[in-house]
Amino acid sequence: MLLWRVERTERVVQPTGAGTACSRRRSTTPSRPAPGALVIGRATCNGRPSDFFPGAIRDVRVFDRALAAARIKTPS
């Protein structure tokens, strides 16, 4: 399972249950709502779909708030 957490000025991608291994991106600009739809499995480059994920994606869960650590380990 992969966790993507966005805080005020930090974005963290971390495999859940993997200790502290993660990718962090800090910004001086606070997070804000993004225009458009949530897209999973591809990127956009110059307004066109690109970088398609080559495998299967299943059991995706999106929350509108930060979750407690215990909830991340055992989501329901």
In short:
Strand 4 (43-45) and strand 5 form a beta hairpin.
Number of helices: 1
Distance between the termini: 13 Å
Contiguous uncertain segments of 5+ residues: none
Q: Provide the structure class.
A: mainly beta
Portion in helices: under 10%
Approximately what portion of the residues adopt beta-strand conformation? Answer: 25-35%
Q: Element order, helices and strands?
A: EEEEEH
Report the C-alpha radius of gyration, rounded: 14 Å
Average pLDDT metric:
70
Query: What can be said about the biggest beta sheet?
Result: 3 strands, antiparallel
Number of strands: 5
Biggest sheet, strands in spatial order? 1-2-3
Please indicate the count of domains.
Answer: 1
Shape: globular
Structure characterization notes:
The structure is a single chain. The protein has 76 residues and is mainly β. The chain has one domain. The protein has 1 helix and 5 strands, in the order βββββα. It has one helix at 69-73; strands spanning 2-6, 10-15, 23-26, 43-45, 48-50. The strands form 2 sheets. It has a 3-stranded antiparallel beta sheet with strand order 1-2-3, with no helix packed on it. Strand 2 (10-15) and strand 3 (23-26) form a beta hairpin. The longest helix is centred in the last third of the chain and has 5 residues, at 69-73. It is globular. The two termini are 13 Å apart. The mean pLDDT is 70. Residues 15-38 are annotated as: Disordered. This is LamG-like jellyroll fold domain-containing protein. Pfam families: Laminin_G_3 (PF13385).
